[in-house]
Amino acid sequence: MIYETNSRNETFELGKKLAQSAGPGDIYCLSGDLGAGKTAFSQGFAEGLGVEEDVTSPTFTILCVYETGRLPLYHFDVYRFEEPEELDDLGADEFLYGDGVCLIEWPEKIRTLLPADVKNIVIRKDIARGEDFRQIETDFDS
Ligand code: ADP
Ligand code: MG
Q1: What percent of the chain has pLDDT over 70?
Q2: Which ligand has the nearest atom to the CA of 75?
Q3: Which ligand is nearest to the Cα of residue 35, counting in written order?
Q4: Strand arrangement of the beta sheet that strand 27-31 belongs to
Q5: What Rg do the C-alpha atoms of the chain give, in angstroms?
Q6: Which of 32, 53, 87, 125 has the most CB atoms less than 10 A away?
Q7: pTM (2 d.p.)
Q8: Which residues have beta carbons under 5 A from ligand 2 (an ion)?
């Protein structure tokens, strides 16, 4: 599916909507350059799952766990990884193969360690369409 948004809030709302169809064990890979809107999408996604806490970017903590929604949410940001194996230090298998929902920013950094059946979301800018335009492509139906 291809979606288009023109504000942070529209991207947030799309995240919220796509979270409705998330199920136990789902892994969502969220790609896009710095400033694309990955955190905005993630915050909406968390709200869509019913997470009550404020969701911040886990750039420094790598992983944030939220357990107040209808399913646990494991929000990863592995931007700072130099090698995929750093994932093992987190005991990430417990999350990747658990009953919660994983949402992973910068999945390309750990692609070799992820299962094949992940759901992919890519956020792209297109400056020709304006500063706030984003094209958001998924490889699944909502
Ligand atoms: P990332 O996590 O990908 O680095 P953020 O979500 O932290 O990106 O930041 C996205 C920035 O772009 C925010 O400042 C947001 O207000 C701005 N923005 C402008 N238009 C959009 C849009 N359509 N979708 C998402 N963010 C947008
Ligand atoms: Mg971010």
Answers
A1: 100
A2: 2
A3: 1
A4: 2-5, 134-138, 119-125, 27-31, 101-105, 73-77, 63-66
A5: 14
A6: 87
A7: 0.96
A8: 38-39, 57
Model confidence over 84-105: pLDDT tens digits? Answer: 999 998 888 999 999 999 999 9
Predicted local distance difference test score (pLDDT) of residue 13: 98
Q: Which residue among 2, 4, 5, 8 is best mutated to probe the pocket of ligand 1, counting the most ligand atoms within 8 A of its Cβ?
A: 8
- Protein residue with least CA distance to atom 15, ligand 1: 8
pLDDT, tens only, 128-140: 999 999 999 999 9
Please give the full DSSP string across 99-140, using - where no structure is assigned.
SSEEEEESGGGGGGGS-TT-EEEEEEE-GGG-TT-EEEEESS
* Ligand 1 centre distance from Cα of residue 137 (Å): 16
